[in-house]
Amino acid sequence: MKVIQKQRNSKMCAICGLDNRYGVRAPFYSMEDGSVASLFSYREEHQSYPGRVHGGLIVAMLDEMGLRALWAKEGGEKTYGVTISLETKYRKPVPYGVPLIGRGKIVKETGNFVTAECVITDEAHTVLANAVIRYLKLTPQQIQAGVNEHEEMCYLIEDGVTEIGLPA
Question: CA of 80: how far to CAs of 97, 127, 138, in Å?
Fold first, then answer.
């Protein structure tokens, strides 16, 4: 599936922050079908039990993909929001040190709310974890007064990815 646009990375986010040495540093891509995708790997420092990623970091990735799915649908970082509910199902252990694929899409949107469905799979597209997430739309100023989102979301590093092998 074709990549339409690479999304920005932040400085310190636990999932996309490029300056966070303990973060996942995941890239995100707006896809031609309006979804978002990520090609990423967790590292050993993200473990809970040996060989398995901590459930909190799994759910954090799913949560990140949900709002980024709205950005993919809109064609840019126009709408922000905060998570109001998140239902996660852990299907199989999520390993670290291997390539993983994340995908999210918006399934419902109203004036103030957005619902996304997100999934993490291995390269064979086996579902490892999935979630349904609801967000309350807010401006950056409503989320935290004094935060300059352009300062935090400062990285746009093109990496040449133009297509991602995703099931339809």
Answer: 31, 27, 5
Confidence at residue 108, expressed as pLDDT on a 0 to 100 scale:
96
Residue type, 42: Y
CATH superfamily of 3-152: Hotdog Thioesterase (3.10.129.10)
**Mean pLDDT along residues 62-66:** 97
Exposed e or buried b for every residue in 16-53, given b needs 16+ CB within 10 A?
bbbeeeebbbbbbbbbeeebbbbbbebeeebbeeeebb
HSE at residue 157, side-chain half, CA atoms within 13 A, is: 11
In the chain, the DSSP E strands lie at: 3-6, 29-31, 36-40, 80-90, 100-109, 113-122, 127-138
**Residues in the chain, total:** 168
Other CB atoms within a 10 A radius of the CB of residue 130 amount to: 18
pLDDT band at 152 (very low <50, low <70, confident <90, very high): low
